[in-house]
Design brief:
Rossmann fold, single chain, four-stranded antiparallel beta sheet, 2 domains, six-stranded mixed beta sheet, 601 residues, ABC transporter transmembrane region fold, alpha/beta, 10 strands
Length: 601
């Protein structure tokens, strides 16, 4: 069962937003200034219109006509100024949002690459993919479009409210009191929106995971006739995604109609109260007209804010999921200690899988021994092992002995439940990812070919490698098929290019190991997809290419063990024998029995 990634708290999201503002402070200040000027220009029109009303009411001579013409021209100029300033502010806001979105994407990628191997192994692929695509896009949209428009609308709304209160405090208070309905509804919505959108994002992640795993394992599903089970899982995920989506839709269906009704209340209130005050001589007609127009103008900014508030709530929830990677255990400051040497020491190591499904191939049988229900039994029961620098160590044993589990612990993918696994005196799992890649590499029969050129598929391991070095790495693993490629190293690989079969893809993976040149290489069924003869040749070539490096081979072919400096024999989660091939055969113990069985004697 996968472990869900954390979601950042509201406080962390606010800190992240402040960080983005600080990173581009000059542009943000310019946006605020332009918004203020645009909002100020927007206030001129209603005030001048109120003045025109009072002028027309008090006088009808040529002077009044001249005054009205002059004021009308000023209204046109102010309106044009507001349009120009608002558009320029929106353009600056969009650029600010694009730059911020780019930084968020880059930071997300950096954090993803820095995730500890153990976290990646136990994280839902759908969850991580959804955060890196849908959630990041939601945040980018908010920063690029929603945030600038909301900022402009908020500035306009504040200036309009201020103008109404200055024009006539009594009318202003009357109009603003009618906005209480919007405030109440908005508070109701905001209390429920964030958890609702976070739940929707999580449900979408589960759905993406179900669909991805079903597609990846289509052949297995078909072979084992698991179609109905996968359909049931997909139906459950779709049902939950639909439920969460309908919940957020219901929140919006309450918010928007309530807001639409509330828009008319301030204008109606000002006209009613203003009419009464005008009859009693407490206010002039121009003030009533200007206040009504101001409050009518307030609908535009409020409408913009409320229309985008749904997007902002969704984006805030997405931002919380994106920033959640910063809270993943083990992604904080890694140990600053450097391994003193390449010696690997395993002391008193115990390990248990939380779920059977988390155990790699071969580890399930041992995990089944425990029936407590809360936790599967230990796969490793106190393993002690010293791996000398530069030696070739083979680890052998029957299926379920814990060989692959030990390999994962040695590579830092998992942490032991008890005991220690150290490289040069430093816990392997505490090494920073980049340092760990230089220290230890685990190679299994699982591999990945990126949809790119062969050259770029190899440069992943060593970006500075020359073409000659790339070809040498391929030659070292006997990947002679490069000579048959239409464009050599420039041949496109993947679904839209040349397709590598399983053995070829495995040789590509091994060539990456040679290019990466780590201090220690752990090979777990690394040549399993090759035929016996090719596997034997590749293993010899690897041994020559990795001479001087520490090589730990999880050996399923005992001929591999025969060539090792030492052999560690595992049985039921313990190292039961350790020594060279001839010595172990002479002892007549478990390894000797395996060797005789291998040779059919």
């Amino acid at each position: 069962m996968s472990t869900p990634l954390p979601v950042a708290s509201a406080a962390r999201v606010r800190r992240a937003v402040r960080h983005e503002v600080a990173a581009d402070r000059g542009a943000f200040v310019a946006i605020l200034l332009l918004n203020a000027l645009a909002a100020g220009a927007g206030l001129v029109g209603p005030w001048l219109l109120g003045t025109i009303v009072n002028t027309v009411r008090s006088s009808t001579g040529p002077a009044a006509v001249s005054t009205v013409d002059r004021l009308a021209l000023l209204i046109v100029v102010a309106t044009l100024a507001q349009i120009v300033l608002s558009r320029h502010a929106l353009r600056l806001g969009a650029r600010f949002g694009e730059r911020a979105a780019a930084r968020i994407r880059e930071r997300f990628l950096d954090r993803t690459l820095a995730l500890p191997a153990a976290v990646v192994e136990h994280t839902s692929t759908g969850d991580l993919t959804t955060r890196g695509t849908t959630d990041v896009d939601d945040v980018a949209t908010a920063l690029r479009t929603a945030a600038p428009e909301v900022l402009i609308a908020s500035a306009q709304a504040l200036f309009i409210i201020g103008a109404v209160l200055v024009l006539d405090p009594l009318l202003g208070v009357c109009g603003l009191s009618c906005l209480v309905v919007i405030t109440v509804v908005l508070r109701w919505y905001l209390r429920r929106a964030r958890p609702g959108y976070i739940a929707e994002g999580a449900a979408n992640s589960v759905l993406a995971e179900v669909l991805a795993t079903t597609a990846d394992g289509a052949r297995t599903v078909d072979a084992l006739r698991l179609q109905q089970r996968r359909l049931d899982a997909a139906e459950a995920a779709i049902t939950e995604a639909r439920r969460t989506r309908l919940h957020t839709l219901w929140l919006r269906s309450v918010l928007f109609p309530s807001v639409d009704i509330s828009y008319a209340l301030p204008v109606v209130g000002v006209l009613l109260v203003g009419g009464v005050l005008y009859d009693h001589g407490a206010v002039d007609l121009g003030a009533v007209v200007a206040s009504a127009i101001y409050l009518r103008q307030l609908i535009g900014p409020l409408d913009t804010v409320l229309l985008w508030v749904e997007q902002l709530q969704s984006s805030t929830a997405s931002y919380a999921r994106v920033e959640g990677l910063a809270a993943v255990p083990g992604t904080g400051p890694a140990t600053a200690a450097e391994p003193a040497d390449d010696r690997i020491e395993v002391a008193g190591v115990r390990y248990a899988y939380r779920r059977h499904s988390e155990a790699p191939d071969g580890a399930h049988d041992s995990a089944r021994d425990d029936t407590s229900g809360a936790r599967a039994g230990d796969v490793l029961h106190g393993v002690d092992l010293d791996v000398r620098s530069g030696e070739r160590l083979a680890v052998v044993g029957p299926s379920g002995a814990g060989k692959s589990t030990l390999g994962r612990l040695l590579a830092g993918i998992d942490r032991p439940r008890a005991g220690t696994v150290t490289a040069g005196g430093v816990p392997v799992a505490d090494l920073p990812p980049e340092r760990m890649r230089r220290q230890i590499a685990l190679v299994t029969q699982e591999h990945h070919v990126f949809q790119d050129t062969l050259r770029n598929n190899l440069l992943i391991a060593r970006p500075s490698a020359t073409d000659a070095r790339l070809r040498a790495a391929l030659d070292a693993v006997h990947a002679r098929w490069i000579d048959d490629l239409p464009a050599g190293l420039d041949t496109d690989l993947g679904s839209d290019g040349h397709h590598l079969d399983g053995p070829q893809a495995q040789q590509l993976s091994l060539a990456r190991v040679i290019l990466a040149d780590p201090h220690t290489v752990i090979l777990d069924e690394a040549t399993a997809l090759l035929d016996p003869a090719a596997a034997r040749d590749t293993e010899r070539a690897l041994a020559a290419a990795l001479r001087g490096r520490t090589v730990i081979a999880i050996a399923h072919r005992l001929q591999t063990a025969h060539d090792a400096d030492r052999i560690a024999v595992m049985d039921a989660g313990l190292v039961t024998e350790l020594g060279p091939h001839d010595e172990l055969v002479a002892r007549g113990g478990g390894y000797a029995a395996l060797w005789r069985s291998w040779h059919g004697s």
